[in-house]
């Protein structure tokens, strides 16, 4: 399938709300536009409303207020089987009494496709997801990763205009999950399908997505590219949820400066004017300060509490002079690794003003 030209309003959530009891809103005034061919991930903690959004789009739930449009058409009242949407569930939802090929053929047979065409399409999909030769096996005879591939192939076999995925990799072990993330990304590039993916795993979202919609308490907090979310979080919630960061309370003392304890830190970015602010300390941006550290870099001084050897890195727990605790990892081959001190020793870290991120507290 050739990659299609993207249109910016392929999927639209227009002031969508969802309530199950008529009083409290699980989804609150949701507005989101998704381009054709885009891989968008809804990322958030359990109970944030992301799966409810997916179920409304699939047609298994109905919006209480607002419109959901697909390719310009309001689909609020369109039954699920008429929406032309592929779905991959967390538990795969394969038919246990059907073989692999029968599971894949089922969506095509109910659409009235001719048997020779079904056979050809199933064969193509099996080859695409690296399952050729397993046509006659039943789901119980497959590994978790193989079952996941069958579920994915079944969602793609009728060439849907949109594919929804609800935490499809959560049951897999870490190594297989990371492998499948790469395969899903490659499949997306090859097919050009529009994919909306739900997860609570931020690393998974960062790996695969064109854009990420970070969700909390029924609202989208920030919708942006993975790089922008990591480097320019909108508030403390996004900063905590994206990447490996420690948030420390600071006080604004200028348009580009904050105070942490007795230390003034300079930021290359404008400091927000908010009652409560946090310094976002991203572990990978920290370096051990030495004689070669640029004069302009901010210094964070503290006392080592503990160091933990973790193979490729060492995790350091540091109590800053402000009284806050900071923990971070140093790569084993990173400059400064040999300077690590035992508990109780003094240590000074450097943070460049470009990497000194200040965000307001989440509302």
Task: Give me the count of strands.
Answer: 20
How much helix, percentage-wise, in residues?
10-25%
Main sheet properties: 6 strands, mixed
Question: Nearest-angstrom radius of gyration?
Answer: 24 Å
Oligomer: single chain
Report the average pLDDT across residues. 88
- Structural class from helices and strands? alpha+beta
Instruction: Give the helix tally.
Output: 8
Approximately what portion of the residues adopt beta-strand conformation?
A: 25-35%
Q: Summarize the helix and strand pattern as letters.
A: EEEHEEEHHHEHEHEEHHEEEEEEEEEE
Low-confidence stretches: 1-6
Strand order of the largest sheet: 6-7-8-3-9-10
Distance between the termini: 44 Å
Describe this structure in words.
α2 (100-109) packs across α3 (115-128). This protein has helices at residues 50-58, 100-109, 115-128, 144-156, 174-191, 202-208, 226-231, 236-241; strands at residues 11-18, 27-34, 39-43, 65-70, 73-74, 85-88, 162-166, 194-199, 211-216, 219-224, 245-254, 257-260, 263-266, 277-282, 287-288, 298-309, 313-320, 325-331, 346-351, 357-360. The protein contains eight helices and 20 strands. The protein is 23% helix and 33% strand. With 363 residues, the protein is of the alpha+beta class. The chain has a six-stranded mixed sheet with strand order 6-7-8-3-9-10, with helices on both faces.
């Amino acid at each position: 399938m050739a990659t299609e030209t993207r249109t910016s309003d392929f999927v639209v959530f227009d002031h969508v709300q969802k309530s199950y009891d008529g009083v409290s809103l699980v989804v609150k005034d949701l507005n989101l536009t998704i381009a054709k061919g885009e891989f968008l991930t809804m990322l958030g903690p359990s109970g944030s409303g992301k799966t409810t959004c997916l179920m409304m789009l699939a047609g298994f739930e109905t919006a209480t207020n607002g419109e959901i449009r697909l390719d310009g058409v309001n689909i609020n009242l369109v039954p699920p089987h008429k929406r032309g949407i592929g779905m991959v569930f967390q538990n795969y939802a394969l038919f246990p009494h059907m073989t692999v090929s029968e599971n894949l053929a089922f969506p095509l047979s109910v659409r009235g496709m001719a048997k020779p065409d079904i056979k050809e399409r199933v064969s193509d999909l099996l080859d695409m997801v690296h399952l050729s030769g397993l046509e006659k096996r039943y789901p119980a005879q497959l590994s978790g990763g193989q079952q996941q591939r069958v579920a994915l192939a079944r969602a793609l076999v009728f060439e849907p205009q949109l594919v929804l995925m609800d935490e499809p990799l959560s049951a897999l072990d870490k190594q297989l999950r990371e492998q499948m993330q790469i395969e899903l990304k490659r499949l997306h590039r090859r097919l050009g399908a529009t994919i909306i993916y739900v997860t609570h795993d931020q690393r998974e979202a960062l790996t695969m997505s064109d854009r990420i919609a970070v969700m909390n308490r029924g609202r989208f907090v920030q919708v942006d590219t993975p790089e922008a979310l990591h480097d320019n979080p909108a508030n403390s919630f996004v900063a905590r949820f994206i990447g490996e960061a420690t948030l420390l309370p600071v006080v604004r003392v200028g348009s580009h400066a904050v105070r942490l304890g007795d230390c003034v830190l300079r930021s290359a970015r404008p400091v927000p004017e908010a009652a409560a602010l946090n310094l976002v300390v991203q572990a990978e941006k920290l370096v051990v300060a030495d004689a070669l550290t640029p004069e302009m870099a901010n210094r964070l001084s503290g006392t080592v509490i503990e160091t933990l050897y973790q193979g490729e890195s060492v995790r350091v727990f540091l109590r800053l002079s402000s009284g806050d605790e900071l923990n971070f990892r140093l790569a084993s081959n990173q400059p400064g690794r040999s300077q690590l001190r035992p508990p109780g020793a003094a240590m000074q870290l450097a943070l460049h003003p470009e990497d000194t991120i200040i965000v307001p507290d989440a509302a």
